[in-house]
Design brief:
This protein has 211 residues and is α/β, with parallel strands linked by helices. It folds into two domains: 101 residues, Rossmann fold; 93 residues, Rossmann fold (3-Layer(aba) Sandwich), CATH 3.40.50.170. Helix content is 34%, strand content 24%. The protein is built from six helices and nine strands; from the N terminus they run E-H-E-H-E-H-E-H-E-H-E-E-H-E-E. The strands form two sheets. It has a seven-stranded mixed sheet. Strands 8-9 form a two-stranded antiparallel ribbon. Helix 1 packs parallel to helix 6. The radius of gyration is 17 Å and the shape is globular. It starts with 14 loop residues before the first strand and ends with a strand. The relative contact order is 0.15.
Length: 211
């Protein structure tokens, strides 16, 4: 089992964002690019992954961003993994955590300690889960899209921050539709994270307001 990182004290400056990835990290790259502008108000302080060797980690390393890996298989159970992941995140003192294609459900310890933002390739609450694009095509919808939402203990059930629509074309495959959704999703995520970083948010019942 990996050692538990030591929590740190938050330094002054732009909003501190930690990003969790499982794959290629295209959403991560969009956030890295946006954060180069000081007016964006974000510094990416860490990138974590649930496995070694991901392209997302390589992207972070190329930009000099600290990285860590926290694998479920290295822990006795999901609860101990959750505690370890929470400790890794706490050591970087993030103001916001973004799951950018992170393919693990977060546990109570992480969610209690952090505001977490996720994106999903459908217009929630329609088509939650890992097969949203295929499910939308199979259902025959004419419009789908993407959603940015706060993460809670469910599967894509958290309060909605933003949504953008993407038309479904007659000749779409899962791959072509997903590529168009991902392009819109990256832009939406950059916008939402920047506004949360600069302005914060309030949550009343399920309604999120960003001033």
């Amino acid at each position: 089992m990996s050692p538990t990182p030591t929590p740190a004290t938050r330094p002054p400056g732009p909003a501190r964002v930690a990003v969790l990835v499982s794959g290629t990290g295209s959403n991560l790259q969009a956030l890295i690019d946006a954060s180069r502008d000081p007016a964006y108000g974000v510094t990416i302080v860490a990138v974590g992954a649930d496995r070694h060797g991901t392209v997302g980690l390589q992207r972070a390393e190329r930009h000099g961003i600290p990285t860590f890996v926290c694998r479920v298989s290295d822990h006795d159970d999901r609860a101990s993994w959750d505690r370890a992941l929470a400790a890794h995140l706490a050591s970087h003192v993030p103001d916001l955590v973004v799951t950018a294609g992170f393919m693990k459900l977060l546990g109570e310890r992480v969610l209690a300690a952090h505001t977490v933002v996720n994106t999903h390739p459908a217009l929630l609450p329609a088509f939650p889960g890992a097969h949203a694009v295929a499910d939308a095509l199979a259902y025959g919808v004419r419009v789908t899209g993407c959603t940015a939402h706060l993460v809670d203990g469910g599967v894509d059930t958290g309060p909605i921050l933003a949504q953008r629509a993407v038309p479904v074309e007659d000749d779409d495959t899962e791959e072509t539709l997903h590529e168009r959704i991902k392009s819109v999703e990256r832009s939406m995520l950059v916008d939402v994270v920047g506004r949360l970083a600069r302005h914060g948010h309030t949550l009343t019942d399920r309604k999120v307001t960003i001033p």
